[in-house]
DNA sequence: CGCAATCGTTTCGGTCCCGTATCATTAGGC
DNA sequence: GCCTAATGATACGGGACCGAAACGATTGCG
């Protein structure tokens, strides 16, 4: 069952969610960072720098820098793959899970408030 | 008629939209910039730096800088208010309108593709 | 063993953004 | 005319990010 949404509703939803996040003083993530974060939390592991770079069609340094920032925010963590020590496995954190869960609730709430 | 959405659907929608934008090489806007852009295009004018700063609960330089960047991207334009020359009126552009319209269509499309 | 391939990170010069404080310009009360 | 208030922009030091290139570490093939 697809979610039916008119363009005006879609834009209003996006605005209300962004406004809420900004006003709440949440980290000012870029679209790239958000794409990475949500992919880590929604798609099945394992996640690697290379895999994310391919999925987003960006270069590896873009992923590395985004992970640097989000690691400082405790939203994700990195760990060497002991089976192939060239790899770095990107893992979820408790704080990141809470952030994503809360973010989903905000979207749901703002969608519920939409006028027809 | 509110839009019903489960948290998992909401997060998946956000991910798919962000992924699409990143992959398409669209400007990597931050949440703040997106909140400003959508407010300019969805809320009734006039829009001023001070008004946006209050609406977003951020400082004026934050708005000025975001407008600098989005002006360079041709997404918005600035013009002195001739009736009160202290004010700067932030206005829409053709490119910005196309960007917002396209963005709305992307959200609608990704919502339609959502699994139940 | 040696060597090429792969992985993630780092470097480089340059741009953008941050928060705080200050600025120039304009308006309006007196 | 003067002085205060208001507006948006700017200066500052610091941090994050960009793309392109080079880097060290690790693997696995010949």
Automatic annotation (TrEMBL), chains A, B:
GO biological process terms held by the UniProt record: response to stress
InterPro entries reported in the protein's UniProt record: HTH_MarR-typ, MarR/SlyA-like, WH-like_DNA-bd_sf, WH_DNA-bd_sf
TM helices/strands, residue ranges: none
Domain HTH marR-type: 1-116
Gene Ontology molecular function, alphabetical: DNA-binding transcription factor activity
Top-level lineage group: Bacteria
The protein, known as: MarR family transcriptional regulator
Pfam family, one: MarR_2
SMART domains: HTH_MARR
Species, as recorded: Chelativorans petroleitrophicus
């Amino acid at each position: 069952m697809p979610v039916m949404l008119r363009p005006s509703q879609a834009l209003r939803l996006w605005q209300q969610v962004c406004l809420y996040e900004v006003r709440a003083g949440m980290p000012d993530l870029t679209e790239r960072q958000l794409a990475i974060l949500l992919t880590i939390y929604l798609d099945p592991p394992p996640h690697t720098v290379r895999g994310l770079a391919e999925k987003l069609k960006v270069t590896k340094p873009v992923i590395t820098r985004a992970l640097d920032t989000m690691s400082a925010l405790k939203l994700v963590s990195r760990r060497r793959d002991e089976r192939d020590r060239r790899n770095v496995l990107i893992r979820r954190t408790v704080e990141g899970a809470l952030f994503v869960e809360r973010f989903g609730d905000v979207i749901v709430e703002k969608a519920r408030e939409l006028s027809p």
